Amino acid sequence: MFTSDPEQYLNTRFWFQGATLHPSRLPTDPDVRSPTHSCHVCPIRHFFEEILYYSVGRYTLKKTVVFGLLLAFQAGPVTAQTAEWSDLERITIFANGMVFDALAAGPEDGEPVLLLHGFPQTGYTFRHQLRALATAGFRAVAPNQRGYSTGARPLEIGEYRMGKLVGDVAAIASALDMREFHLVGHDWGGAVAWVVAARLSDRVKTLTVLSTPHFGALGAASRDPSTDQGQRSSYFADFAAPDSQDRFLANNARWLRTALQNSGATPADIEVYLETLGNREALGAALNWYRALLSPQTSASPFGSPPATSASSAPPTLYVWGARDQSFGRAAAEATAEFVRGPYQFVELPRNGHWLPEAAADTVTTLLLEHIGGSR
């Protein structure tokens, strides 16, 4: 999710204030508008997207000749990195009046799994899990979230508040005909996943969160002077600064490349991420998640209070934390159990840090398959 030392992240008022959720009304779909609304895109791609949006509506479009044309205009020259994920489907999802790019794998009629990435990554971070889930018979989809997808990139900072992000997940699931689904989140995606599971407990069959503690536990730890969570999170305001994207992209994106390298990404993986985030517009939109959370218009506790869910209505939850995570300390990780209703499993990986989907791919995949497989 965060920091110039990519192992340190998360320092927001919502963590510091120990803000929690309240099952308030989710944002409804805005008036139907062009999928490229408020976005600057290639005019030719815009032309095709306009035709597709108004003729297909919010339905998922994939494996069609026209979609192939869209990819051709969007992707540009084929690079050596393409081969690493050529086995994964690249799909487009029309949801919440926007267009989300996503990677998918598995049979169309497989039990659905939705995977939410963090910063500074994309759905590509779950490539290992997507393949394993597909082999196990699940239908797994990892969307590039708001700001990361070209067609889902509003200009206003207020459009990146948590309510909007949660609304996107609900709309994406509905667009994919996922009445019920397993939910996985890492980093910022984990923060969103905690909220989605609380607000949509009747739709989320299981919850798996990697690295990110429950916001209530993180807020309490941040305020506790006996822990170092406040120090761990101190970089957050720097990420929200107006010029952060320019600094992170300076010198051939040196900061961004270093952050991705430290996450365990290979040089080829880094180029894949930079295809999405290696420009000012995309990186600025991704950083708007931080700016929205720290904006003057956001309350000190932007998520309200936690829902009083009973054990029977809360989804079974798996929380995986790396003991070497420089962003989230042990106090917040262990206290997460106090904020979970229903079946709960906490797994500590003593030799791992923050970047679990890639750096601990085999272990995470095994734990994930055991967790969601047990609900079948």
Explain how this protein is built.
The protein is an alpha/beta fold and 376 residues long. The chain has a single domain (13-373), classed as Alpha/Beta hydrolase fold, catalytic domain (Rossmann fold, 3-Layer(aba) Sandwich). Helix content is 40%, strand content 13%. The longest helix is centred in the last third of the chain and has 19 residues, at 244-262. The radius of gyration is 19 Å and the shape is globular.
Any chance you could write out the topology, listing elements then pairs?
Layout: H1 13-16, H2 43-56, H3 65-75, E1 89-95, E2 98-105, E3 112-116, H4 127-135, E4 139-143, H5 162-175, E5 181-186, H6 188-199, E6 204-210, H7 215-223, H8 229-232, H9 236-240, H10 244-262, H11 267-277, H12 280-294, E7 317-322, H13 330-335, E8 344-349, H14 356-359, H15 361-373
Parallel strand pairs: 3-4, 3-5, 5-6, 6-7, 7-8
Antiparallel strand pairs: 1-2, 2-4
List keywords for this structure.
Rossmann fold, 376 residues, 40% helix
H/E element order: HHHEEEHEHEHEHHHHHHEHEHH
Total count of strands: 8
| CATH class assignment | Alpha Beta
Specify Rg, calculated over alpha carbons: 19 Å
Cα-to-Cα separation, first versus last residue: 31 Å
Residue windows where pLDDT falls under 50 for at least 5 positions? 2-83, 299-313
H/I helix tally? 15
> CATH homologous superfamily name?
Alpha/Beta hydrolase fold, catalytic domain
In what range is the share of β-strand residues? Answer: 5-15%
What's the helical proportion of residues?
25-40%
What would CATH call the architecture?
3-Layer(aba) Sandwich
CATH topology: Rossmann fold
**What is the 3D shape?**
globular
- Helix/strand-derived class? alpha/beta
| Total number of domains | 1
Q: How would a textbook summarize the main sheet?
A: 8 strands, mixed
Biggest sheet strand line-up: 1-2-4-3-5-6-7-8
Average pLDDT figure: 80
